[in-house]
C-alpha cells in the first residue's frame, strides 16, 4: 500500500479508501518512507511533544526578557488569568492557549529550545492549541500524539501542493498562517472530527490568515510574532469549532494554499522577512530599531509616509470607508 500523498485531496482520498483517520495515514506514511516500525515513528513524535511541553512549562514561568528586550513576561501575565475566564471574553481553554503560545514564542526569543512546527516564528500556535485542548478535554496521550501526526500531514500536503513555510517567500501567512491551519486540523481530530472536518477547519483557519505580512521589528522574531501566535491560536480554535458545528469552507484547502501562493506573488519584498515594511517601519518600530543599534532603514522604504491615498487607490466596493 502506498500512503504517500501530494495534496489534501489525495490525503482525504486515502482516508476514505482505507477508512483511516488523517493521523493513521501520516503514521503509515512515515513508516513506509523511513522503513521503520510504528513504535519508532511514534517515539520520534513523542520527543517532539515532550520538547513542546518543556518550552511551555518554562515559558509560563519566566519573566526574562529577550536579548533586545522587546518581549518577555507576557506569558506569565496571561497564564495568571486562566482561572478568571468570567472576567474575559474568551473561555479558559482559549486564554490558556494564548498563554501557551506566548510562552513558546518567548522561549524562542530567549534562544530557548522549541520545536519549529512549522517554523520557529510560527512555533507557538500548534502546541498552544493542542496542549490547552488536551487539558480541557482531559484527553488521552494517544489522541494528543495523533493530533500531532494529523497536523504534520497537513504541513506535508501544503508543501507538496506547492505551498511554503517560508516568510521570505510568502510572508507571515506562510508561518503563523500555516501554523493555524495545522493546529486547526490536529485539534479537530483530537475532538473526534472526521478527516473532512479536519481539512475544513484548516481551510477556514488559513483563509483568515491570507495576506498576512511578515514585518518583524528589527528583523527579530519578537514583535509582532509572539502575540501573533497567541491570536493565531484562537483563530485555529474558532476554525475547529465552526467545522465541528457543520460550517463548511466554500474554498477547499488545496485551493486556499493556491490562493496563499497567488497572494505571495504580489507581496512586496518589504513584507517578506526583510523588516523594511509594515509594523517594522512604524514610528515606534523605527525608534526601537535605533535603540537596538541597528542601521537605519534606507529612505526609499520610508517614502510611503509622505503619500496620501489617491482616488485611484479607492476600492469603490462597499463605500463603507468613504
Ligand atoms: S512576522 Fe515574520 S518573523 Fe514574525 S512570525 Fe510572522 S513570518 Fe515569522
Description:
The longest helix is centred in the N-terminal third of the chain and has 22 residues, at about 40-60. This protein has about 325 residues and is mainly α. The protein is built from 13 helices and no strands. The structure holds iron/sulfur cluster. Iron/sulfur cluster binds near residues 221 and 228.
Share of helical residues: 40-55%
| Rg on CA atoms, Å | 20 Å
| Portion in beta strands | under 5%
Question: And the CATH topology?
Answer: 2-methylcitrate dehydratase PrpD
Coarse structural class? mainly alpha
Record field, number of beta strands: 0
Tally of helical segments? 13
**Bulk shape:** globular
End-to-end span in angstroms? 59 Å
- Bound ligands: iron/sulfur cluster
Query: Largest sheet, described in full?
Result: none
Number of spatially distinct domains: 1
List keywords for this structure.
322 residues, mainly alpha, 2-methylcitrate dehydratase PrpD, 13 helices, globular, binds iron/sulfur cluster
Outline of the structure:
The protein is mainly alpha-helical and 322 residues long. It has 13 helices and no strands.
